[in-house]
């Protein structure tokens, strides 16, 4: 029996991907985590001082907790508006023998493909009081007195941006739910219909329990995406996330802390600390999903 | 039976109604911007909802964009960065996926897990480290920096998807080639065409976030000569906010290539998403 040859080919196959991935993803992440424990002034290891400062300093903590709060609101709106509408559209699209369903799904997914920068500007124009499009649309149904420059007001800017995000990304839950619904065997649904069940009952009693795993996937994708968001707020409101920081989320806070703005200097170490907190929030979400949801729900083999 | 048919007709009517309403909401903003980009400034404000007519037709916005912004340069940059990144992701990703799905070596599971970390952890969180690395390598304001970052960003998903496809290929196929004396590299090149549909799906998937990204171009390559379309549009639009013709035209210019690509590849993309369900 001859000795096993060293598996050079395995190394050759793995190495290029391993190097690029380790160098440009894992190493920077580790480096960034390390920096979050280093002082900005002295460059020395200071344990959790940056974290303590971020969470309790008079100036910083206000911004941090504000960003966490705004990000949670942003996520909540995405969850309760985007995902149910996505589910409804998917349920309609997956109707058997529905004419034109391919055309519908292609068109409905279109906004999801465009860059957030384009979407941000388009909605800025549409909601602009200067152009008056929204006002005249509201006017056509007699509601023009309700028009406000929503993006400019402290009370409504964040909600408006969240709804723009919903409008853009609704295609993702729609497609994932659609795929899950297509996977349900037809005879199961047919049998229920023969027994006299209405479409409504068939959906909630048979189809919905079967696609519960997808509900979990959609939720965690929304969560990770929202706590990593930046482009939309930056495009529409700039790095200062006005008015008066009312649209400031984790992504914009991270960018500002890292690069500085106006009178405040950029601070890579504090930026790294904000990024580490974002990582912590995202990982918490992932763990809750894996332990609290994926394990508890029953997956049916179909 | 008649009851059921009646119900189905009613159901379908309701489905079409809802889909048409939502379809209007989804497409109205896009169509509105495109039609108004071909109108004179006066018509944009006086009749925003109507199509351009012979009197209101104008290309003044496009000529401003052409004169003031280097959109051709930005397009070139975006195309180079996206195409090279996708090529590197697919090639190195397929190689790694092949190794992980084909060979039973020690540490295989651990390696799969390691490469998969990036699916859930957004690469943006390492931006401080990435910028330090790019500066240390002297790669600021280069397309190469973006290409390497996007390759690292795209690899985890690519490997994950390709690995699951490759592990479904029947063993006999590879064993037969081995008996004929084919090298492992030859076998990899035989497998690649078989997973072509999966490779195409991955390509479409990783392409969109690369083309549309604002974050890394803004941070790693904001210089004029390396600007991508997304960053270029963002900065041009910021400067020309009050020139409505220019804003609408540049938005249309930035949208059109993606919309055309999407319409060409939408079947591929959608069947990729739904593949898990209708295998």
Core attributes:
heterodimer, A: 302 residues, mainly alpha, MetI-like fold, two-stranded antiparallel sheet, 1% strand, B: 279 residues, 2 domains, flat
Question: What features would you describe in this structure?
Answer:
The complex is a heterodimer of chains A (302) and B (279). Chain A is mainly α. Chain A has one domain: MetI-like fold (Orthogonal Bundle). In chain A, 70% of the residues lie in helices and 1% in strands. Chain A contains 14 helices and two strands; from the N terminus they run H-H-H-H-H-H-H-H-H-H-H-H-H-E-E-H. In chain A, strands 1-2 form a two-stranded antiparallel ribbon. In chain A, a hairpin with a 2-residue loop joins strand 1 and strand 2. The two termini of chain A are 47 Å apart. With 279 residues, chain B is mostly helical. Chain B has two domains: 60 residues, no CATH class; 171 residues, MetI-like fold (Orthogonal Bundle). Helix content of chain B is 77%, strand content 0%. Chain B has 13 helices and no strands. In chain B, helix 4 runs antiparallel to helix 12. The longest helix of chain B is centred in the N-terminal third of the chain and has 35 residues. Chain B is flat and about 75 Å long. The chains are: A mainly alpha (302), B mainly alpha (279).
């Amino acid at each position: 029996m001859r000795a096993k040859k060293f598996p050079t080919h395995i190394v050759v196959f793995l190495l290029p991907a391993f190097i690029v991935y380790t160098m440009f993803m894992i190493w920077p992440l580790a480096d960034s985590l390390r920096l979050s424990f280093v002082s900005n002034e002295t460059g020395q290891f200071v344990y959790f001082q940056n974290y303590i400062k971020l969470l309790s300093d008079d100036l910083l903590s206000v911004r941090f907790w504000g960003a966490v709060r705004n990000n949670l609101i942003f996520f909540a709106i995405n969850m309760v508006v985007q995902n149910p509408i996505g589910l409804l559209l998917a349920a309609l699209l997956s109707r058997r023998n529905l004419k034109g369903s391919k055309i519908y799904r292609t068109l409905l997914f279109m906004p999801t493909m465009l860059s957030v920068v384009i979407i941000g500007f388009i909605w800025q124009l549409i909601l602009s009081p200067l152009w008056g499009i929204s006002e005249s649309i509201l006017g056509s149904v007699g509601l023009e007195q309700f028009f406000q420059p929503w993006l400019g007001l402290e009370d409504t800017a964040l909600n408006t941006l969240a709804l723009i995000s919903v409008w853009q990304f609704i295609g993702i839950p729609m497609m994932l739910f659609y795929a899950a619904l297509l996977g349900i065997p037809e005879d199961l649904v047919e049998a229920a219909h023969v027994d006299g069940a209405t479409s409504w009952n068939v959906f909630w009693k048979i189809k919905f329990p079967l696609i519960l795993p997808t509900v979990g996937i959609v939720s965690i994708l929304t969560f990770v995406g929202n706590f990593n968001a930046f482009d939309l707020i930056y495009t529409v409101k700039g790095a200062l996330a006005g008015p008066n920081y009312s649209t400031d989320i984790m992504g914009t806070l991270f960018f500002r802390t890292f690069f500085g703005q106006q009178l405040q200097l950029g601070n890579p170490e504090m930026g790294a600390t904000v990024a580490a907190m974002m990582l912590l929030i995202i990982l918490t979400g992932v763990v809750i999903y894996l332990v609290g949801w994926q394990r508890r729900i029953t997956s049916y083999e179909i | 039976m008649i009851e059921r048919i009646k119900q189905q007709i009613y159901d379908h009517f309701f489905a079409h109604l809802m889909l048409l309403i939502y379809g209007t909401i989804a497409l109205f903003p896009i169509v509105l911007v495109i039609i108004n980009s071909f109108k004179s400034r006066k018509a944009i404000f006086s009749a925003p909802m109507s199509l351009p007519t012979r009197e209101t037709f104008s290309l003044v916005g496009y000529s401003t964009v052409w004169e003031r912004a280097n959109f051709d340069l930005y397009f070139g940059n975006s195309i180079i960065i996206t195409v090279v990144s996708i090529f590197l992701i697919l090639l190195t990703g397929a190689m790694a996926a092949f190794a992980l799905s084909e060979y039973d070596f020690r540490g295989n599971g651990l390696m799969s897990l390691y490469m998969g970390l990036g699916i859930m952890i957004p690469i943006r969180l390492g931006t401080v480290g990435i910028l330090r690395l790019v500066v240390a390598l002297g790669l600021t304001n280069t397309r190469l920096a973006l290409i390497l970052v996007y390759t690292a960003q795209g690899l985890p998903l690519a490997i994950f998807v390709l690995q699951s496809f490759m592990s479904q290929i029947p063993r006999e196929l590879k064993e037969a080639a081995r008996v004929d004396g084919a090298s492992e590299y030859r076998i990899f090149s035989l497998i690649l065409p078989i997973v072509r549909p999966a490779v195409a799906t991955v390509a479409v998937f990783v392409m969109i976030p690369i083309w549309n990204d604002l974050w890394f171009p803004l941070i790693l390559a904001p210089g004029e000569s390396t600007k991508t379309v997304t960053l270029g549009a963002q900065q041009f639009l910021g400067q020309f906010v009050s020139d409505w013709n220019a804003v609408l035209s540049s938005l249309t210019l930035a949208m059109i290539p993606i919309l055309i690509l999407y319409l060409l590849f939408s079947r591929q993309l959608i069947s990729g998403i739904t593949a898990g369900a209708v295998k």
